[in-house]
Amino acid sequence: MIDNYKIEQPLAYNFLINAIKNNRISHAYLFDVSNLNDKKKFAIAFAKYLICHNHYSNDENCCNCNICKRIDNDNFPEIKIIEPDGLWIKKEQILGLQNEFSTKAIESKYKVCIILNCEQLNKYAANSLLKFLEEPEENIITILLTNNIGQVLKTIVSRCQVITFQKEMEFNLTHDEEYKQKVNNIIKFIKTLEMKKLETFLVTKNTWYDSFKSKEDNIMAFDLLLHFYRDVLNYVTGKKLKYFIDYISDIEDIAKVNDIMKLTKKIRFLVELQNKIDVNVNNELLIDKLIINMAEV
After folding, report:
1. At what angle do helices 215-236 and 177-196 cross, to 10 degrees?
2. DSSP assignments along 147-206, one per residue
3. How does strand 111-115 pair with strand 140-146?
4. Which tens digit of pLDDT belongs to each residue from 112-129?
5. Domains and their CATH numbers in the chain
6. pTM to 2 decimal places
7. Is the Cα torsion angle 28, 120, 92, 128 positive or negative in sign?
C-alpha cells in the first residue's frame, strides 16, 4: 500500500498522509509522475488509504480487508479508472464518469476517479473535465496522472493540487576510477558529517567542491548521498543492500549513529535539497544548508 513509497517518494508520501490526517484533502490532485514506473499502483494505494474504513497504510495492518481486496480486483464501484482509448481520452469517457459519479458514495466516504496519462485528454474531453473540476461534488476526489505536465491544459492544472514525484534514476557504482574517487569523497563527506557535524565545513573543498563543480556533478553527488542513506536504512531495517554492497563497513559505521526516524528525516531533507538544484540555487548556499541541517538531525 502507500507505505511502500515512504522512502522512495518521501515528499509525496508525507504530503498526502498529512493531508488526510489533518482533514485537508483536495478535491483534485495532479501527480506529475513522468519518472515513476509504477504510477498506477501509487494512485491506487492512495485511493485505498482514502477509502479503507481502517485507513491502514500498509498491507500487514490492513490484512487484506474486503474493500481493499475488491479494489485490487477492480470490483469496487466507488473507484473509477480512466485510461486513453487509443491515442486519446475521449469526451464520452469523461461524460460516463460524470454520470457514474452523479450519486453519492454508498460503501465509503469518498468516490475516487483516477485518470491516467491525462495529457492525452482530447480537446472535448479536457473541456468536459474542466467543468467537472470547476464545480466539484462533495466527497469526490479526482486524481490525474501525467507524464508531461507541460501538455496538460493550464486551466486544469490551476484547479488541482500539483505533486511532483522524485526522479527515479538508474544507479550503479561500476564506473571508471574518476567516478569511484567521487564515491569515496562522498563517503568521506558523509562520515565527517555524521561524526564531526559542523566540522565538515573544514573538508568541503577536498570532499565536495574539487569533485562536484557543475550542476550535473551536484546532481550526481546528491544521488550518491541519497542512495547511500537508503542503503543505511536498508541495513538498519534488516533488508539487503541495493547499492553500496562493497562499502558494508562504512554502512555499519553510519548505522551505529542513526535510527530509522533519523534516517527517514535525512532522506526527506536530501530530496528537498536535490529538487532545488533544478532551480539553480547557489551551490555553496546549498551545501552550507546541507551541512547545517543534517548536523542538527
Report:
1. 60
2. S-GGGS-HHHHTTSEEEEPPPP--------HHHHHHHHHHHHHHHHHHHHGGGGGGGHII
3. parallel
4. 999 999 999 999 999 999
5. 2-164 (3.40.50.300), 177-296 (1.20.272)
6. 0.62
7. positive
